[in-house]
Prior knowledge:
The protein is mostly helical. It has a single domain (2-239), classed as Four Helix Bundle (Hemerythrin (Met), subunit A). Helix content is 73%, strand content 2%. The protein has ten helices and two strands; from the N terminus they run H-H-H-H-H-E-H-H-H-E-H-H. Strands 1-2 form a two-stranded antiparallel sheet. The mean pLDDT is 84.
Amino acid sequence: xxxxxxxxxxxxxxxxxxxxxxxxxxxxxxxxxxxxxxxxxxxxxxxxxxxxxxxxxxxxxxxxxxxxxxxxxxxxxxxxxxxxxxxxxxxxxxxxxxxxxxxxxxxxxxxxxxxxxxxxxxxxxxxxxxxxxxxxxxxxxxxxxxxxxxxxxxxxxxxxxxxxxxxxxxxxxxxxxxxxxxxxxxxxxxxxxxxxxxxxxxxxxxxxxxxxxxxxxxxxxxxxxxxxxxxxxxxxxxxx
Length: 240
């Protein structure tokens, strides 16, 4: 029975995506966002449990990707669609242009398909992982609902039409790019070997405490920038 637990968790991830899409179409973006977060916990946990009970295999890997494309690809697209439609009064023709939100689902599916057959992505990712994108999108309605005095200027910026369209364009490219990014797989837990990763985690906690949900896009940006700097230093040390 224990060997079925990881796949059950993956199915829970998929169920979160399906219900989240329904919530988004009904205008309940906050619930849809929390379902992405819950699905993220299940997505992280199913692989951990699979390794723990010795149930890892190709079936689970394929099921995981099918669930991820719904929850972390299609659902974020619907959230972005509703956010853009909510700003329809700000620009003429925005209602039609808002369908650009589905680029996230398309490029997310392309990323997952490539990830499944790319043997290079063991110690690092190439391109932004699709759950990271989904987490940023989930933060948007949550920061709109709970932005305090400190986070309100950031929330207003992140929810603006220019940012949303720019985000769709840039993130669609980042998900399928060859950009090397850190994978949080610890071979040891020493500070010396994981200084960048620990520094990132500490900075993330501080940002979350100060800015709450408005910190999440900044955390993902910090993750990308640190990955670029780390990879650059690694390449420089190899050429010396």
